[in-house]
Fold:
Amino acid sequence: MSTDVATRPAAEKYLRIAREIAINIMPLEAILESQGVSLREWEEAQRSPRLREFLSEEIALWHGSPNTQERVKLKAAAAIEEWMPTLFTRVNNRNESLAAVVEGGKFLARLAGMGEKTTAAETGERFQLTINIGKDDTTKITTITQSGKPVEDDE
Structure:
């Protein structure tokens, strides 16, 4: 494995390591093992200014999160990023339960705030629009309901 942090594959790997170190979920040895980096390679890579930059940016991002919810979103987003190659492989494996894989992905996406967004209609809010055209003094109010169907009210 190349320890030259300037090469794209190595940079991506060391960025993932820096993120895991900042998040501090696993011990360093487990992080390095998960990325296929030996302790000797890690010691050599630590001399790289680029790696030090990665570490300081990831630590600042992690510690800059103002609350637990934001940190959970960051952890979930990091997990999704790490999980995507595995998910792609598993989704294309006919022996895997697609429903289970998709549900797991939906769960992590929701944690990261990357899932489906709620619209105003889904939260029970209404949208009202009044358009006056012409010289007529009558006002017609149309309210759009949750189902998207207009309800006309006369005033």
